[in-house]
Specification:
With 196 residues, the protein is of the alpha+beta class. The protein is 45% helix and 12% strand. Strands 3-4-5 form a three-stranded antiparallel sheet, with no helix packed on it. The chain has a two-stranded antiparallel ribbon with strand order 1-2. Strand 3 (157-159) and strand 4 form a beta hairpin. The radius of gyration is 28 Å and the shape is elongated. The N and C termini lie far apart (86 Å). 4% of the residues are buried. Mean pLDDT is 75; it is low at 171-191. GO terms for molecular function: heme binding; iron ion binding; monooxygenase activity; oxidoreductase activity, acting on paired donors, with incorporation or reduction of molecular oxygen. It is found in: Membrane.
């Protein structure tokens, strides 16, 4: 009987000392310095806070948690950085320069397609279809050059699954198009257009 008491006492001393050492080392270890975050629900994260109008919901969250805060989009951790117009002064020139250069790139691609169409090229891709629609006078709604640029930017472009870059997939739409010209992959994630 005495042996059982000594074993139980030894086990309890070991258990208490282990728990104390864990608590001591856990409190002294450096925690990552993460931005503040609202309460997240399992599986959906903070998606319930972003409905119905995401940009207004993000603004309300920035008023409560500051201009930089952490949100979970489903199970994907993300950092939101929202600044007022006064806070954009330092970035204004760079943003305008990036927008101008990007616009020139898309304009050059459209001009190349227009020149290849004049040479009666039989290759048809998405941009050629958009240019056909824009030139069609019988259309009820006219597409402008800016509409075509915006339409190109609304997709996440990636190389096709075949690995030899012969096709381009547009995420979320389920369209696979044969590649007619050199592949231009541009990842765009804008909640609002960049101001001019």
């Amino acid at each position: 009987m005495s042996d059982i008491h000594s074993y139980v006492l030894s086990f309890l001393i070991w258990l208490i000392s282990t728990l104390l050492l864990r608590a001591l080392f856990k409190s002294t270890s450096a925690k990552p310095c993460l931005p503040p975050s609202p309460f997240a629900l399992p599986i959906i994260g903070h998606l319930h806070l972003l409905a119905p109008i995401p940009h207004q919901a993000l603004h309300k969250l920035s008023l409560r948690y500051g201009p930089v805060f952490r949100i979970l989009l489903g199970s994907v951790p993300s950092v939101a950085a929202l600044f007022t117009r006064n806070g954009k002064r330092g970035f204004g020139k760079r943003l305008k320069d990036i927008r101008r250069r990007f616009d020139e790139l898309i304009e050059r691609i459209i001009k190349e397609h227009e020149e290849s169409r004049k040479q009666n090229s039989e290759k048809m891709d998405l941009l050629n279809i958009l240019l056909d629609v824009a030139q069609d006078e019988s259309m009820e709604i006219k597409l402008t050059r800016e509409n075509n640029k915006s339409f190109i930017l609304c997709f996440d472009w990636k190389a096709g699954e075949d690995g030899n870059l012969t096709s381009v997939d547009m995420e979320g739409v389920g369209i696979t198009l044969p590649r007619a010209n050199h592949l231009v992959c541009i990842h765009v994630a804008l909640l609002e257009p960049i101001p001019v």
